[in-house]
């Protein structure tokens, strides 16, 4: 299996920078005693750093995506229900819905259109797709988890 570079280092390095929000969410998970989430968040941070440093399609990418989904589902179906105060539970659910929709739409547009049509397969298209992902998945989701967790203590 050969790994194919999907996004240039110019854009992928921002994934390394925004991945620090995942590390911060790991620290908050420890502080809030969310011990089921903690190892998943740490593993997600590691795979995010490896994946975004050299944005390639391969095992690390798939593991990163899997851990991201597990973390979001764990927060949504366990921690939000059990530990978040009602108002913060609602905030999490709304943000998770928006983040999930943004992820699906971004992936669909990226893989269905940008990578298939040479005219759309430009550096600008890759930049937009990358920054949409980073905004919703690397900043908004961990940031909302941090906010809701700390406010629910």
What would a concise description of this structure say?
This protein has 153 residues and is mainly alpha-helical. It is built from six helices and two strands.
Protein model, in words:
With 153 residues, the protein is mainly alpha-helical. It has one domain. The protein is 79% helix and 3% strand. The protein contains 6 helices and 2 strands; from the N terminus they run βαααβααα. It has helices at residues 9-18, 20-31, 37-53, 59-82, 86-114, 123-151, and strands at 4-5, 56-57. It has a two-stranded antiparallel sheet with strand order 1-2. Helix 1 (9-18) packs antiparallel against helix 3 and helix 5 runs antiparallel to helix 6. The termini are far apart.
Structural Rg: 16 Å
Beta fraction: under 5%
- The spatial strand order of the largest sheet comes to 1-2
Mean pLDDT comes to 92
Following the backbone from N to C, one meets helices and strands in this order, namely EHHHEHHH
* Topology, number of strands: 2
Instruction: Provide the helix percentage.
Output: over 70%
Low-confidence segments, given as residue ranges, are: none
Summarize the biggest pleated sheet.
2 strands, antiparallel
Strand-pairing-aware structural class: mainly alpha
